[in-house]
Amino acid sequence: MGTELAYGLIDFAKKQFGPIANTVLEHWGIYKTEDFGYIVYNLVDIGLIRKRENDSLEDFFNVLDIKEYFNSQECYSVDKTFIKTKKEA
Predict the structure, then answer these.
(1) Which carries the bigger pLDDT value, residue 81 or residue 40?
(2) Contact 7/66 with Cβ under 8 angstroms?
(3) DSSP structure string for 41-57
(4) pLDDT above 90 as % of the chain
(5) Which helix (H) or strand (E) holds 80?
(6) Helix, strand, coil in percent for the chain, rounding step 5
(7) Top-confidence residue, 72 or 42
């Protein structure tokens, strides 16, 4: 589960912050996928979320190199359905 969640969080950051996603994550102290794991397991420890019996913190370790991932991706895209046109332009 940690692998899927780590990829999901990276994808969410990419969609939310576009080309500055890595900078935002680094500003928050997130450099490695295990940093996501520490956040998740802190939420487990205080009872905000639950884990399954076979889940572990180590599931988040070495999932991917976040910086390398963002450097190799197109971090933004244009969604033409949201572009508004002006008749005066």
Answers:
(1) 40
(2) no
(3) HHHHHTTSS---TT--G
(4) 64
(5) none
(6) 60, 0, 40
(7) 42
**Would you state the structure tokens that stand for residue 88, as one six-digit string?**
């005066």
Only one residue has tokens 């332009």, namely 89
d(CA 13, CA 69): 12
3-state secondary structure the chain: CHHHHHHHHHHHHHHHHHHHHHHHHHHCCCCCHHHHHHHHHHHHHCCCCCCCCCCCHHHHCCCCCHHHHHHHCCCCCCCHHHCCCCCCC
In the block, which residue shows the tokens 């008749």? 87
**Residue 21 near residue 54, CB atoms below 8 Å:** no
Q: Which of 3-7, 18-22, 32-36, 62-66 has the least mean pLDDT?
A: 18-22
- Amino acid at position 73, single letter: Q
